[in-house]
Amino acid sequence: CGIIGRNLAKKIVPYLNDFKKPILTFNDDNQIEENTCPCAFQIRYQGYKGVLMINNDDQDETIQVRPSMKKFTSTISTCLYVCDDGYSGPKLGFLIKQYIMLLSGLNISDEVFIKKQEEYFHEIISMCDDMNIAIKYSLYFDRIDLIYYLLSNNIQFIQSELQILQKKALESVEKLKIPITKSRLAFGVCDP
User: Fold this and answer.
1) Are 178 and 97 in contact (CB under 8 A)?
2) Per-residue DSSP letters for 35-70?
């Protein structure tokens, strides 16, 4: 991974927060700290892609990238694109074929995966009748617009939309892509 100076990282954070809820953290005295900064950013910049971690010793506004981060040569754009901001948090994860194979190799019983898949099938089938499940999958598939109708108990109005979500969910099962609700996004970086 590459390195980004703390001052430059702090300048980037307000732009990230324009599109999200305000970020608040608490210090050791339970006082709110504003303008907190993530420890890593996933970026794209002039043909480079990868993760930049904060260098607390570097107070400058610099970025250092490793040669292995260079994917192609480009001088067209001078914009730094932040793909992910490095804040760990709850996020829908998926159990996919590769993970199942890895976990099976670690002696995790196939029954565990079968049970998860059966639970998922049950929820897909119940989606058009159970408002809580419909809301859950509306969030999973970024259909927040449907939640208003669900909360106003107008589930009949959006039956066709829910059936589209059901179809998407079934397609993900065919690809062995099963959502795992209690999952988090975490960044792993090599600390030199």
Assistant:
1) no
2) S---SEEEEEETTEEEEEEEETT--SS-EE--GGGB
DSSP secondary structure code for residue 80 in this structure? P
Place of tokens 């196939």: 110
Q: Which of 127, 126, 119, 117 is nearest to 172 (CA)?
A: 117
Rounded to 5 degrees, what are φ and ψ at 135?
Answer: -65, -45
Which residue, 62, 106, 70, 97, is CA-closest to 178?
A: 97
Q: What is the pLDDT of residues 107-143, one digit of tens each?
A: 999 999 889 888 888 988 888 888 888 888 887 777 7
Q: How far is CA 60 from CA 14, 54, 56, 158, in A?
A: 18, 11, 10, 53
Q: Exposure of 186 by Cβ count < 10 A (0-12 exposed, 13-18 middle, 19+ buried)?
A: exposed
Triad 189, 23, 47: Cα angle to 5°: 40
Rounded to two decimals, the pTM is 0.53
Q: What is the pLDDT of residue 192?
A: 60
Lowest mean pLDDT among 43-57, 62-76, 82-96, 102-116: 82-96
Q: For residues 94 and 177, is the Cβ–Cβ distance under 8 A?
A: yes
